[in-house]
Amino acid sequence: MVPFVKTQALGNDFVLVEESHVPGRDYAALGRKICDRRSGVGGDGLIVWHAGSDAVRLRIINSDGSEAECSGNGLRCLAAYLFGNGAASGDAVRLRTASGVYTLRREGDRYAADMGRPELVPEKIPFRAVSAAEKVVDYPLQVDGRTVRISACATGNPHCTLFVDAIDAGEVHALGPLLERHPAFPNKTNVEFVHVRGRDAIDVAFWERGAGPTPASGTGSCGAVVASVLNGRTGRRVTVHTENGVLEVEWRNDDDRLRLVSTAEVVAEGGYHDA
User: Fold this and answer.
1) DSSP states of 92-124 as a string?
2) Topology adopted by domain 2-109+264-272
3) Class of domain 122-256 (CATH, top level)
4) 19-59 pLDDT, tens per residue?
5) DSSP 228-251
6) pLDDT tens sequence across 235-261
């Protein structure tokens, strides 16, 4: 039996398992099984974590078994659990992912994450541009016989953003997987569909790499705001409206770092009977 904790952040859900409970396991196989919504616990991803001397180390496994470099919602979910059970003392905790160390702070019933500086250099996103480009902004990309204009960056993991007149679930399901696996993104990509409400608010629908459609995304919200700023559509402090609630994102002028704030909570604890 594998002890687990089920968490969620605006409907983006994760199964947390302490590393000591799954020594030597194939995390990809475990992620696919435990995240299955019919035969497992159910979740968009599995987070395997271990408390280190200077930071809590975690690995993020998508529901399809692939590994993600980072997850803004996943970070807040783990922080909510660590603060809730007393494993994190004070008001801040450091979490180490494949893309770096992130500091999260508890602010009432919300959690604020310093998400670092977005990566805009195409080769580091990574993005393969047809012609040389310093940034991928309003870039014409050929997808299934049509041209869509996208903006790309990395906010711990790769993101592709396009602006739409209205959020259309059919378009998200049709275009999302094509962009996720587009040859221009050698490591695949997360996809955001953004409708701009005004200078300080956007609506976003998400297609997540390795998980498909999700009701919210932390790094995706950051990517959407970076794209909105670079395209001159919003200011640097933006409320991101998702299917289940809001995230606050600020891309600061003074140090170029992203700040992400929203809720997260523990849903359940139990034992997964893994045959």
Assistant:
1) EEEEEETTEEEEEEEETTEEEEEEEPPB--GGG
2) Diaminopimelate Epimerase; Chain A, domain 1 (3.10.310)
3) alpha beta
4) 999 999 999 999 999 999 999 999 999 999 999 889 999 99
5) HHHTTSS-SEEEEEETTEEEEEEE
6) 999 999 999 999 999 999 999 999 999
